[in-house]
Design brief:
This protein is of the alpha/beta class. It is 37% helix and 15% strand. Strand 3, helix 2 and strand 4 form a beta-alpha-beta unit.
């Protein structure tokens, strides 16, 4: 029996999907969406809030503020509600409508910034607005998920050790790159513990995180329009770039077998399957990919025929 009194205390850490059945690839998918925030971001949010409280930065009268495309905003809204804090999320038009509604249901104030930045994304514009808010009042506390070491420490302390325990013979780990908190926490853990694990980052085509050319991106989650301060490429062995059409096709292929995952998961799985096929043709190394969230928040976008037709002009083939 599990009994909790704070929502962030519950998280399913040991659930994996063997993808040999659903998509025919020797890959284990670590599911991080089974908690009250519905994503891997709950770990980072809890770690950052707790660190800010311990350092005396965050008090009862503070107003949390953060830039988020959705999942971290939901996690912070949940934690703020449980602590009786105000929270203001600065997001953009790519945020899923369900995520917007969920944050507001939890009591968060949500601002949607619609002015794109010089790279065609919205991240710089969102961060600029956050800085303006912080300059307007000392009550605002910006955790800054893009540079806060507590972001990656959450995964160094929890996510990576859980994977190492479940798969002591792990050979390859695939991690999506957003703020790079999950990526850097896992990569640091395996490198610093001298475990022979190949760390493969998975990014979206159009993201500039690893020096790519900025392009239109519609699926929230992975990818950035500015390089995250947390990123240290010395810990990463390879990078795979996935176009959004492949992300969507993979999500639909998984859904056709009863597994409804989010866009970030589709990106990671698509990149992992392609990388394994190229690097290990005919072989089955022990490989794990991290699934950041589930698919319900994407019902109005990547699982909606009207959205797909509007933005991509065609629907993915149904299995």
């Amino acid at each position: 029996m599990t009994i909790i009194d704070s929502p962030h205390e519950f998280n399913v850490e040991d659930l994996y999907v063997d993808l040999r059945g659903p998509i025919g690839s020797a890959l284990f998918l670590k599911c991080e969406g089974f908690n009250f925030a519905g994503s891997v971001k709950l770990k980072a949010a809890a770690q950052m809030v707790e660190a800010a409280e311990e350092e005396g930065v965050l008090g009862a009268e503070s107003v949390l503020v953060e830039s988020s495309s959705g999942n971290l905003g939901i996690a912070l809204a949940l934690i703020a509600a449980s602590r009786g804090l105000r929270f203001r999320c600065v997001t953009d038009p790519r945020c899923n409508p369900a995520s917007l509604r969920l944050m507001r249901s939890l009591g968060a104030e949500v601002e949607v910034i619609s002015t794109p930045d010089t790279n065609g994304g919205f991240l710089e514009s969102r961060i600029r607005h956050v800085r303006e808010l912080c300059a307007s009042s000392d009550d605002y506390v910006w955790l800054n998920q893009y540079a806060n070491p507590s972001n990656w420490r959450a995964h160094y302390r929890r996510t990576a050790p859980a994977i190492a325990s479940a798969f002591p013979g792990l050979e390859v780990l695939f991690v999506g790159a957003g703020t790079t908190g999950t990526l850097m926490g896992c990569a640091r853990y395996f490198k610093e513990h001298r475990k022979p694990v190949t760390i493969v980052a998975v990014d979206a085509v159009g993201s500039v995180t690893f020096g790519g050319i900025p392009e239109r991106r519609l699926v929230p989650g992975l990818g950035t329009s500015r390089r995250p301060e947390l990123l240290d490429e010395d810990y990463i062995d390879d990078v795979v770039f996935v176009p959004e059409t492949d992300t969507i096709a993979t999500c639909h292929a998984l859904a056709a077998r009863g597994f409804l995952f989010g866009g970030s998961t589709g990106t990671v799985v698509s990149g992992a399957v392609r990388w394994l096929g190229e690097k290990y043709p005919g072989a089955e190394p022990v490989a794990v990919a991290i699934s950041p969230d589930l698919g319900e928040r994407y019902l109005d976008s990547i699982y909606a025929d009207s959205w797909l037709e509007e933005h991509f002009g065609a629907l993915p083939a149904r299995s």
